[in-house]
Amino acid sequence: MPNEHYAYILIFNEKWWNRLCKRNRSSDEIHVFVRKNRVGPLETQKLLFYVGKPIIQIRGVADFIERLTGDYKDLWNAYGDETCLKNFDEYVNFLKGRKTATFIRFTNFHELRNPISMDAIIQALGVLRIPRGGKYLNRETANQLTV
User: Where are the domains of the chain?
Assistant: First the structure.
């Protein structure tokens, strides 16, 4: 795997971040981040969880397993219990009529004791905003942010 794709920043909103943290406290091992489109990492080692407004920080990290895309029903049937969604109806409402979805599977999730501020992100990446689809980071930049 190229060094440029060592880590990937995923954007969460506060609601889904809080659900992930709550679910993780119940000691589930593998988690799934659900996307409505096919954006997300194909190959990476680490995921960095950026929580948008009003928090605006990287708040957690995890080990990437895989990205799966396909029929929304097939994905739910295979991996729905790994998501933060309460049931199939909530999942369908979340997708807003889309018939395909993307599941980003990860493990070893943990919250950072010292979240990474937007100032530190700007300094390390040289950008004022994280792209909505996420962003790959090389090993050096990821280590600079998480050390």
Answer: 3-146
Q: CB of 91 within 8 A of CB of 76?
A: yes
C-alpha 80/C-alpha 22 separation (Å) is 17
- Decide which of 1.10.220.10, 2.120.10.30, 2.40.128.490, 2.30.130.30 is the CATH code for 3-146: 2.30.130.30
CA distances, 135 to each of 9, 25, 46, 94, 147 (Å) = 5, 27, 12, 23, 19
How far is the CA of 70 from the CAs of 37, 50, 112, 115, in angstroms? 10, 25, 32, 33
Pairing of strands 100-117, 7-12: unpaired
The string of pLDDT tens digits covering residues 43-91 is: 999 999 999 988 999 999 999 999 999 999 999 999 999 999 999 999 9
Q: What distance in Å separates the CA atoms of residue 13 and residue 2, rounded to the nearest whole number?
A: 29
The structure tokens 């790959």 sit at: 136
Please state whether the predicted TM-score (pTM) of the whole model is above 0.85: yes
- How many Å apart are CA 101 and CA 9, to the nearest integer? 19
